[in-house]
Write a structure and sequence with these properties.
alpha+beta, 33% helix
Length: 197
């Protein structure tokens, strides 16, 4: 049996302290590629039904963001706005889903299962970013999921663009947050009589 050296408290604290921070909360400072590689390696170890590993990422950083500006320009009317957006974060990681297919072209797993797998990968990525002192946010609306942007990334149906993870060093104080009581979200069934549907 495999032994783990995980510190449960450290893992739980990483989960508690992870925060989503958007463009206005990111420094302009560059992020070393090796840190992004660590984040992506963590993402790659997410679970997936049928071992499909449907996550697909494209990383834009440095001057590579000019290419992202052109892709954003397919969804945004003003080229300058597209460029400003692309250079507003040091790193952009597109979040794509490429569902596994059988030889006849049909999907090996349901779209819902593949979506859940990609979400797990992004959570892994975000937790690793936090562990490395970085922050970011999964943006999933507007140009971040536009079909023209998806096409520019080579994600054509049934592949999907699920958004972008914008990433960088935090520009200010770390955010705090709260969650509602767990008791309001969980039912315990320890005896058959405890469950009434």
């Amino acid at each position: 049996m495999m032994q783990t050296n995980l510190d449960a408290e450290a893992v739980f604290n990483a989960i508690l302290q992870r925060r989503s921070m958007g463009l206005s909360r990111l420094k302009d400072d560059a992020v070393p590629r090796e840190l992004i590689e660590q984040m992506l390696e963590a993402a790659n170890w997410a679970p997936s039904h049928g071992d499909t590993e449907p996550w697909r990422f494209t990383v834009f950083m440095g001057e590579g963001r000019a290419a992202l500006a052109q892709i954003f320009g397919r969804a945004m009317k003003e080229p300058e706005s597209a460029r400003k957006r692309a250079f507003a974060a040091p790193v952009w990681i597109s979040i794509g889903m490429a569902p596994a297919r059988r030889a006849d072209g049909s999907l090996k797993m349901s779209v819902e299962e593949e979506l859940m797998a990609v979400a797990c990968a992004v959570q892994n990525l975000h937790l690793m970013a936090h562990a490395l002192g970085l922050t970011g946010m999964w943006h999933s609306k507007g140009p971040s999921v536009d079909l023209a942007v998806a096409g520019g990334l080579g994600l054509d149906a049934p592949d999907r663009l699920l958004g972008f993870f914008m990433c960088g060093w935090p520009a200010g104080e770390w955010l705090s947050s709260e969650r509602g009581p767990l008791a309001e979200k969980v039912r315990w069934v320890e005896e058959a009589a405890d469950f009434n549907g």
